[in-house]
Amino acid sequence: MRKLYVFDTTLRDGEQSLGITLNVREKLEIGHQLVKLGVDIIEAGFPASSPGDMESVRTMAQELKGVTICGLTRAVEADIDLCAQALRKAEYPRIHTGIGVSPVHMEKKLKLNPDQVVEQAVAAVKYAKKYVSDVEFYAEDAFRSDPIFLARVIENVISAGATVVNIPDTVGYASPWEYGELIGYVIKNVKNIDKAIVSVHCHNDLGMATANSLAGIRAGASQVEGTINGIGERAGNTSLEEVIMAIYTRRAAYGVESKVNTREISATSRLVSRITGVTVPDHKAIVGANAFNHASGIHQDGVLKDRETYEIIQPETIGVAQNLISLTARSGRHALQHCLEELGYQVSGAQLDDVYKRFLQLADLKKEVFDQDLFVLMGDSGGALNSIVLQSMSIATNGIEMATATVSLEIEGTIMTDAACGNGPVNALFNTIDRITGNTAILEDYTLKSVTRSSEALGEATVKLRHEDGRLVVGKGFSTDIIEASAKAYINALEKREIRPDSGGSEEEA
Ligand SMILES: CC(=O)SCCNC(=O)CCNC(=O)[C@H](O)C(C)(C)COP(=O)(O)OP(=O)(O)OC[C@H]1O[C@@H](n2cnc3c(N)ncnc32)[C@H](O)[C@@H]1OP(=O)(O)O
Ligand SMILES: CC(C)C(=O)C(=O)O
Ligand SMILES: [Mg+2]
Fold this sequence. Notes:
Elements: E1 2-3, E2 5-8, H1 24-37, E3 41-45, H2 51-63, E4 68-72, H3 77-86, E5 92-100, H4 103-110, H5 114-129, E6 135-140, H6 147-159, E7 164-169, H7 176-189, E8 197-202, H8 209-218, E9 223-226, H9 240-249, H10 251-254, E10 256-257, H11 265-276, H12 297-305, H13 333-342, H14 349-365, H15 371-383, E11 388-396, E12 403-411, E13 414-422, H16 425-437, E14 442-450, E15 459-466, E16 472-479, H17 482-495, E17 506-509
Parallel strand pairs: 1-10, 2-3, 2-9, 3-4, 4-5, 5-6, 6-7, 7-8, 8-9
Antiparallel strand pairs: 11-12, 12-13, 13-17, 14-15, 15-16
Bound molecules: acetyl coenzyme *A, 3-methyl-2-oxobutanoic acid and magnesium ion.
Residues 13, 168, 170, 201, 203 line the site of magnesium ion.
């Protein structure tokens, strides 16, 4: 197996994302986590860009041990001087210098001809070598350059002392086979290539940064550059976690291995997201919140039988606790039964069918059904007597005048509808139910609380009714809609006293 060097540029290229500028403390916090992650090189910043970044690189060079600390420069002596100064205390310092090599960069941006570019590249590497032995050269916009010219530049900078040669797809223009071919071309056509490490550095403008990097690695590159969560200018850089896990999962296919501690991937991703403020999409490969969640019934049934059916990476590998099943409206009985068993409920047959039916009603209202919801579902089933069923209800209220409720109840096969006013929605609702059922018990207490998490949490309503004979009956109702939960609780309390339909409401056949 070839060793793959992992070069993290979250704090340099990643920080070039619009809206992220990290201060010394923030960079250092991420830097410490990158050391834990076990990357080989941390590109800490661009010291010439600002005094703040100079200080960040200097602090990281001083504080972070056991890892190469790198700073970026243009092929300009003043940049290299500042970078060398910032890296003075680094255990393993690296200066990363370079220049554009594509026609558009040379002609339009640098206003230099190819010979001048070669000359400036060589001079920069030689100048950086005066300060440090480890000098990486980047051939900016290499993918859009003439490969023959690129090979010439690379050969010259290696002769000048470059220890690593970086062949970037600066604008994310490549497709995997083309990028692989370019890396293969450089390796084959640069005579002294064995004196340097070839590095891949890809951008994600066409969504192919990871694929391109992997193609470059397969073609012989031994260093990969990227950022955590793929952050970076425009559409970002290669997501390091994706490359790391691709080669971890498919070692034989790539023939390389890294020393990264994959179990720190999740923690690193979360830290970078928190500090940069760049959220990770739920479906993002490796580190997205849903990356290891199985949400549909067929998949859930499969992973319960054997995780390999739908799982190529065990979440523990990246430091995430396994959450095998997330219950949603797409879950089936196997998944529900499994989650209930985990909570200590043994349900099967008709009881499972019954819970499953009520589970689906809830799941259609909520994005995800959590353990707390299941507790409620199970508790609720014991209390539901179903002699009075809430068919529909609507409330009209403007918050100033009396509220009006219209309610339809099915009572022992007969649908009863009525309306009543109240000094608030719940009061109007209870008054209407009283009219339909002929209830005369007094409402002694009414409470409402949220019993599960998330914005679609279940509300639990508790109603206490005092009957004429002195008995106190407690009813409970659960729903994501608190008015509905209140109606259910009221009905539950009434059911417990075997209320019979009264002539108060208009009658319909069920
Ligand atoms: C692909 C990449 O990610 S490259 C790295 C991008 N990172 C950054 O730009 C870091 C933040 N940048 C900065 O702080 C500033 O742009 C600085 C300090 C680097 C330079 O600032 P200024 O001196 O004001 O120059 P400015 O940014 O306006 O223009 C860049 C100049 O550098 C030249 N240049 C660009 N790249 C290189 C290079 N690799 N080597 C030599 N010269 C270069 C440009 O041609 C231009 O030169 P000109 O002034 O003669 O036209
Ligand atoms: C400066 C170089 C390494 C770069 O970030 C790029 O070309 O994308
Ligand atoms: Mg870049």
